[in-house]
Amino acid sequence: MDKYVNVRNIAAERERTFKSTFVRWESLLVLMFIAVNVMNVCISPNCLKADNLFTAISNFLVKGFIAFPMAFILVIGEIDLSVGATVALSATLLGVSYNAGLPMGVAVLIALACGTCCGLLNGVIMVSFPELAPMIVTLGTQTLYRGITQIILGSESTGNLHNVQWFYNLYYSKIGPVPVILIVFFALAIVFGFVLHRTVFGRYLYAIGSNRLAAEYACVPVKKVRLICYVLTGLISALAAVYYASWTGSIRSDIGAGYELEAISMVVLGGISTAGGKGNFPGTVISIFTIGLLRYGLGLINMNSQTILMIIGAILIIVVMLPNIAAARNAKKSMKRASAT
After folding, report:
1. Are the CB atoms for 108 and 127 separated by under 8 Å?
2. Domain 25-319 sits in CATH 3.40.50.11030
3. Which has the minimum average pLDDT: 106-120, 196-210, 259-273, 301-315?
4. How many CB atoms lie within 10 A of CB 223?
5. Is it the case that residue 140 has pLDDT exceeding 90?
6. I need a labelling partner for 174 at 20 to 30 A (CA). Which of 154, 203, 246, 258 fits?
7. Using CA atoms, how far apart are residues 284 and 267, in angstroms rounded to an integer?
8. 126 CB neighbour count, 10 Å cutoff
9. Residues 103, 311 contacting (CB under 8 angstroms)
10. How far apart (Å, rounded) are the C-alpha atoms in residues 116 and 233?
11. Which DSSP string corresponds to 135-194?
12. pTM exceeds 0.90
């Protein structure tokens, strides 16, 4: 009887094909990245000089840091609109603490603690009241954090931060022509990418984003994972605040405005679905440089910031629409096949 038994072997991993390897969103992003750099060279042949290029890259990496934990948030199917306000509040406490007489090292720790507490508050509200929409909650905390910042500073600014040499070097130091902030960026990118794609925690993120209820029934610690994601987002936002303070040397209450939308744009352009459960981290890294260098190139021709935002917004709309268009076409093909049979 054994010879009549059909045996089917199921591979643990998908078979790699040409289509699965090269016809994917990350490949399109690489082409887009190349096109942006070609455009920049056509605008100004000097744009790819090491000094100019690394200066431009350093400018947008402060925002790029926030895209890393935002990728985790979007993978679980949620959103955090409070990151820009968290940057502002953390940087404000750093500046105020230092100018009140505390050592700069203590001021930095206060900023990092502030960002962590902001993320913790978001996470506690989310897990305590799961019926609340993340967009509404984080919009509320955005207003709260921004309001506290404005109460502390008002229309004034807090400065003198470049008086501490090591703090100044935090942003401006280089190893040869390469800024240290770029090395820190790639180190964090490797850590976040590894966690998302090579750890159990990363599998939890995808499971929650695909179906939160099913993940709970599968004994995934949904509340704990969500809380960690928001705390991470607050912590990295505070890190961005520290680098911003090191960059500018002074803090105003309006800093960080729009950071949340740019971080979300970077992550969505990188291929991570806003619906959750889909996307790869390398795409986020490529999109950070694509959007950042696009801004750099358009800035070389003195294009105003509003027009640049319109262009990035149009690209984002197209990116969001493409999966739906592809799904609709596949559905039509399936309908035709079904009717033909």
Report:
1. no
2. no
3. 301-315
4. 15
5. yes
6. 258
7. 5
8. 21
9. no
10. 8
11. HHHHHHHHHHHHHHHHHHHTT-EE--GGGSHHHHHHHH-EETTEEHHHHHHHHHHHHHHH
12. no
Pull the structure tokens for residue 228.
Answer: 């960690």
Q: What torsion, rounded to 10 degrees, do the Cα atoms 81, 77, 232, 97 define?
A: 10
> What 3-state DSSP class applies to 231?
helix
| CB 270, CB 284: distance < 8 Å | yes
Decide: 103 and 90 in contact? Cβ < 8 Å.
no
- Give rounded-to-5 percent helix, strand, coil for the chain: 75, 0, 20
Q: For the chain, which residues make up each domain, given as ranges?
A: 25-319
pLDDT in tens, 47-88: 777 777 888 888 889 889 999 999 999 999 999 999 999 999
Residue reference for tokens 């994601």: 229
Q: Given the DSSP bridges, would you call strands 174-175 and 178-179 parallel, antiparallel or unpaired?
A: antiparallel
| CA 283 – CA 28 distance, rounded (Å) | 10
